[in-house]
# Entry
Amino acid sequence: MSGRGMSAAAQREARASLAQSFLARFEGLKARLPGDARAREAAALAFGERGLPGPRDEAWKYTNLRALAGMAFHEPFTVVAGCNGLLDRLPAIAAPRLVFVDGRLRQDLSRLPGTMRVSGFAQTPDFGTLVHPEREPLAALNTMLAQDGAMISVAEGVDAGTLVLASLAADVHGRPVAFHPRHRVRLARGARLTLIEISLGEGVYLHNPVSEVLVGQGAVLTHVRLQDEAPGAFHLATLYADIAARGTYDGFALNIGARIARTEIHARLGGENAVAHLNGAQLLGGTQHADFTSVVSHDAPSCTSRQTIKNVLSGKSRGVFQGRIEVARGAQKTDGYQMNQALLLSADAEIDSKPELEIYADDVKCSHGATVGALDADQIFYLRSRGVPEPEARALLVRAFLAEALDPIADETARTCLDEAVERWWERQAA
Amino acid sequence: MLEIKGLKADVDGTEILKGIDLAVPTGEVHAVMGPNGSGKSTLAYVLAGRDDYAVTGGSATFDGVDLLSLEPEARAAAGLFLAFQYPVELPGVGNANFLRTALNATRRARGEPELDAVQFLKLARAETRRLSVPDDMLKRNVNVGFSGGEKKRNEVLQMAILRPKLAILDETDSGLDIDALKIVAHGVNTLRGPDFSALVITHYQRLLDHIIPDRVHVLAGGRIVRSGGPELAHELEAHGYASVAAEAA
Amino acid sequence: MPAVAETLDTVQSVTQSAYKWGFETNVEMEFAPKGLNEDIIRLISDKKGEPDWLLEWRLKAFAAWQTMQEPHWAKVGYPRIDYQDLHYYAAPKRRAGPQRLEDVDPELLRMYEKLGIPLKERAILAGVEGAGLPGPIEGRADVAVDAVFDSVSVATTFRETLARAGVIFCPISEAVREHPELVRQYLGSVVPPADNFYAALNSAVFTDGSFVFIPRGVRCPMELSTYFRINARNTGQFERTLIVAEAGSAVSYLEGCTAPQRDENQLHAAVVELVALDDASIKYSTVQNWYPGDAEGRGGIYNFVTKRGACRGARSKISWTQVETGSAITWKYPSCVLQGEGSIGEFYSVAVTTNRQQADTGTKMIHIGANTRSTIVSKGISAGRSNNTYRGLVRVLPQARGARNHTQCDSLLIGEECGAHTVPYIESRNPTARVEHEATTSKIAEDHLFYCRQRGLSEEDAVNLIVNGFCKEVLKELPMEFAVEAQKLLAVSLEGSVG
# Structure
């Protein structure tokens, strides 16, 4: 059973039991885990106290993990072959790539770049400084159990081009597995990188990546994420970004896969004239649930943040958007904008939206907007009266709706890859 | 009499006015013409007391009063009126209410009795009729949803009601059709008299066909480079700023 | 002199009628001991001569309250309240009042002056001992006879007019005695006793408040504002209001006063319930200006209010308008449950915080019926070191076909040390519903200020003008006479915040 209809007490118990199993795994593994043991112990302590987030946690108000809590996850095998099918599903991008299978970096499947330094977390573990295990339970779980990940750094002034980071879940056991990759991307002063992250898989699994992103002064990171996980998967990704003066983090996340997905971003604009774009789109059907949660902290004057999030919801799917813009005292001349829109294509779809402003400086320009509705009947009629059949008219209007979020993506490779994913989603909906 | 001596001013650390010398005797209308970026609008803002402009030297007095030491509202009370190139919109603030508040603040500062709503409306209606401005302009919010022409008419209406001693028109003619231009000119011309002076800042000569200036000054590179009678405007129109500025240099 | 005799006559008639009709119960009451338990509730109920069902109702609420936790999700902070250290039955105000006008906080008096409140009324508002008493009238020490002199006689006329129309407007304790079937039918039907911590507390211990009943098809012949303003003083810290508008009826009601009222009770936890049946409309306006505490945030009222209206009937309408300038802490979300098909909910709010004030206020619009519509306009102004939060929920349930919501919330910051926050929750489960939310935060634009000052306005006047413009959409919803006062109130509240 999915857990819907479970009593609150039963849900609490299920969450506690899953949390216990993770803690037990940590106890069993900890002697062999790489990196700072104290950081792991502290994370385990935090996770032990908080457990998995429940509906009473304000940050998880709209995303209930009861379906996850009902699962039992196993350790993935570490060395396997036979993920060729998934490799074929990766978009053809002529660029270096890092391929992870079940959370493990597979050098044999990767093409290492020459323009930047890349290593596996397993070999060069570093938990970094931005992640908050005491605040975010999923980050605590990751810190506790992370075994591998991508450590990427681009040197000062280098334009490193494009890198693909693929995460594949191979389903070799035929039973649920959980993996918690730990990534770090560091761009030194004036460096540039386009990182295309793709998550695909088969079967039932929990993919719980945590990423730390450091954008140096004047550096530009374009970070495009395509989440097309298996229909039975749980994708709970947390990203922490720190952007220095005049640096730009240009992020876009497209969510079309997974049973339950959460894209959580904490971006801090730490130096003057830093810029963050946290855009995204979620296309959902069936009983899918996807949650886009972001916190942008304007900690320095004259920074800009922009956010456009689009949800297209059909079937019984549920989209969630939570976005907070925080402006610290003294962060004058802040320019923050956020727009969240949802299209409900079916009677049973649901959108929950919570755009927040928290402002402690007076010379700021901050605004947010949210709209929820269906496709415009007049527009559909207009198109049909011009001879466009209804399904095409609807598709046309939905694409137009998505364009506002997708159009700012200047990188052609990334854009093509996203457009193709949107097409795949359409085909799936039609089927 | 407006007297400007060696006036220098910075915007964001860049010197825009590099020593302006200019005198407008009471009762006269002077035009300041100049190419884009010559400092015309800066001169208007500095005289009206806008914050972002730092005066770095020189003086500006009006009837012997040091303008530069006064707050903007005190300059207004002293009789200075700036017709903005881009009048701002004040959402929710009714035009009539705004004007009455402004008029009474000025009257208070001059020790004159305030007008009540009825007296004010009588005065305002008389002016709207005289300037052929529709009455409903008083009922609308200040400049909100006004077309460019309507905004300029509203500036002229305000000027007529506030009755300044010195009016500075900052490119009031920009973006106006000929009818609106005539209304603006009419507004200024009816105020002309022995106690009224004006500084008409403009890029083009056409406004000066309707407001005939006593003197014309050419502003270029932050300085007055030439002064002359009304014929100077025609000369500029015929030969352009470049030749006039070059001749002066 | 005949005038004097007439005056005395009127005083007497007013006093007597006030006793019969008045909002205050007999003031010859004792303090009940501090603390809250079943015995105190029984005492309250007994003192008020309540029927058994109401006592049971209170006891149930109390039992629920004991299992509940004080909510802490609002963006406000205050020292822990010891609920066992309060008097739940007393009339402490007349004893606690200052003896002379000279003893009252001069800031408060200055504000009265600015608002143009008559001298005598200032004393009453400030709670000066014996103020408003033309002569010793036993047991009526805190009835504002004098200052409201003309108004009270007017009120008597009002009462007759209302009675002719069939409108019931009386203290809720009287309604319990005179109209028990109505009270029993509707009390707690919108805000159930165990709805939330403060509502449960109120349900257990409420002492008085107002009851309004507008019968079918009747448009209340007057704004209940004036009348209420006269009588609503000292309604106590756990006020309970119930307004029922039967099919096709209409009423406009105003609570509060632009003058800051001094009150010894730091905690106020009122409950207001509105019920609108088919085609009925209720307009509820509030001007809240309780004592906000001093510049350092000492003292001041904690205002934890539950206000909710049920649009039960088709095409019914409930409209909340509030101007909140007072209280140290405001925790208040006047809401609409839109059950009836085509029903309409509205929320218009201005919240001003200065010094150390904290306000967390907004609304909930629950769309249940088809084609229900709601409008939210919230204007928050923060100055000093205050914090001002808009918190609102728009929920569209699956059956609310064609529902519409539009929300506009704007914040204005004055000064570098204040905070302005916006926390909307939008939940939609119907594809034909359309929900739109817009929010902006800004300071007063420099070029707007300069434009006004160029026209001769002082900086303070310019700010007032711009702030009033900012709030206009909300102020125009207030009954006319209060809109003017509210404008003045905004100016006085923000005085000294600029520059």
Summary: The two ends of chain C are 55 Å apart (CA to CA).
